[in-house]
Amino acid sequence: MLTIYGFDFSSPANKVRFAANAMGLAYEYKRVNLFTGEQKTPEFLKLNPIGRVPAIDDNGFKMFESAAIIKYLADKNNSPLYPKDVQKRAIVDQWIDFANVHVATALARVTFNRAMYKLLSVEKDERSLADGIKFLGNFLPLVEKQLKENKFLAGNEMTLADINLLAVLDPVELSQVDLSAYPSIVAWRKNLRSQSFYTKCHASLEEVFNAMTAAAAK
User: What is the CA radius of gyration of the chain?
Assistant: First the structure.
């Protein structure tokens, strides 16, 4: 049995669940309580030595790093979400890397300084927030152009690139990032967020955050 270790607010962990759901895989989901430090226990560090989610245990085969995990699952299960054709696969990899290196890094600055800093009782970093907003302004137009010209990121079929970016962009409402200037991104997100592979995880990440903060306040 495949076991996915995650945390409901973790976009990288949710990415793995989105992918597994989209592939129709049976799995056990084990929540790791990041607030109580479960990710730093000796048992969990055997799964992921850096003490973060996600991690998987696939009948004894253990992995961490979300992009590597979803590629492994797609390959193992011969999923069309990760094409076998070398050039089509290269385009999927290109957009996965672009989203993770550029978009995710920029959005993380905004999410932290508009939402997470309160929960963690730390000081807001206005410079980091401004940089994150600026970087998103540089990178999101490239995504918008790609989705204006193609139904999905890597062409006319949904791939891991779409699942990856969907998870990366999941915090935009919570982060008060206005996507109205990017109608193709908005339409693409609306389509994917209505599908069962997404809704089996949650209705929205903002709802997950609100429930998490309410529980922490008790």
Answer: 17
